[in-house]
Amino acid sequence: MIAASESFVLFPLGRKRFAFPAEQITELARMDHLHEFPSNTRLINGVLVRRGELIPVCDIAEVLVGADAPARKYYLIAKRKYDNLEERTAIPVSGDCELTSSQLLPPTGKLADYVCGLLSLEKEIVEVIDLEKLMSEVAR
Amino acid sequence: MRPTRQNRRKIHTRGQPVVLFTVGEVTFAITASAVNEIQTLQGALPIRSMGKVRHSLIRDGRRYWVVDANFHFGLLPTHSDRVLLLTDSPVAVKVDAIERMTEILRVLPLPNAFQNDERHWYLGLALIDGKVIPVVNPNSFLSHFDLNALEATISHNDVAEVPA
Fold first, then answer.
1. Which helix (H) or strand (E) element contains residue B153?
2. B60 CA: distance to closest CA in chain A (Å)
3. Which of A42, B20, B84, B154 has the highest count of CB atoms within 10 angstroms of its CB?
4. First CA to last CA distance, chain A
């Protein structure tokens, strides 16, 4: 039986690309002014103001590619769930993003728990990221 | 009365008065009603204490515990000698400068992505002149437990008070 393909948004962080399930992404936005203030939540750097909405900025590059992540150029705006509430979060990425359809393969080998699957594309294997799992692992 | 072109300008949406203050490079807001007085640190008594309270102040016969806002918010130390004496608790907050007073129309809730101490530090966020300003929770500086512990150090004479 062949599994149906699903849609994913591929995003670069330096030389490597990662993916989120497409239904989780609402928007791709240009870099905007980041409003910073003291907070202790790891990876949350501040907020953006977009059309009157406060959108927290969650920089996951440090976890995915380490401290040497290149400058970010865009924000991927993703949906996150908190109990019954949905909130948008901006994820800084370092280059152009791409929508693709592919079959989600199960994670193999020694991958982090937040990798929920793999995409086998023409020239690369891309890790699909479970943002909630990544954030809960980081919070621990 | 229906607003007409003549009287429309006189109708104001009443905002909440806040005091804007700075600590390092960050501007914060606190509701004006939460602040009893703004003073200098002059006359503060150093106390033998670890952590964010290193001075106490006596004003009008009442003791205030001076909380270092840099320490409280995890900011690098800066030169600060202004204190906000709070209304409902014996707490004074040491800050760098008082920017001004203004009014805010509404306090937006802190996004849920913020999951740590900041949920207690802030009542929410306000948009003032295009900037996002955290509105501090005046009850977050010292808990009842902290206050009792500080009072206990005084009552047990375990405190060295030397005029500053």
1. helix B144-155
2. 33
3. B84
4. 39
Inter-chain CB proximity A80 and B113 less than 8 Å: yes
Nearest residue, CB atoms, A38 vs list B73, B115, B131:
B73
pTM: 0.86
Instruction: Please report residues of A whose CB lies closer than 8 A to that of B126.
Output: none
pLDDT confidence of residue B13: 55
Q: Supply the DSSP string of chain A, one letter for each residue.
A: -PPPPEEEEEEEETTEEEEEEGGGEEEEEE----B-----STTEEEEEEETTEEEEEE--HHHHH-TTPPPP-EEEEEEEEETTEEEEEEEEESS--EEEEEPPBPP-SS--TTEEEEEE-SS-EEEEE-HHHHHHHHH-
Looking up residue A112, the CATH number of its domain turns out to be 2.40.50.180
Nearest by CB to residue B113, choosing from A36, A37, A87, is A87
Is B160 a domain residue?
no
| Domain limits for position B146 | 14-155
* Residue B100 included in any domain: yes
| B2 found inside a domain | no
ipTM, two decimals, is: 0.90
pLDDT of B9 above 60? no
Query: Does B131 reach chain A within 8 Å, measured CB to CB?
Result: yes
DSSP 3-state assignment of B17?
A: strand
Residue B1 covered by a domain? no
Given pLDDT bands bounded at 50, 70 and 90, which one contains residue A1?
Answer: very low
Q: Tell me which residue range forms the domain holding A25.
A: 8-139
Q: Which of B43, B90, B112, B39 is nearest to A88 (CA)?
A: B112
Smallest CA–CA distance from B124 into chain A, residue: A54
The verdict on residue A2 lying in a domain is no
Contacts of A89 in chain B (CB under 8 A): 111, 113
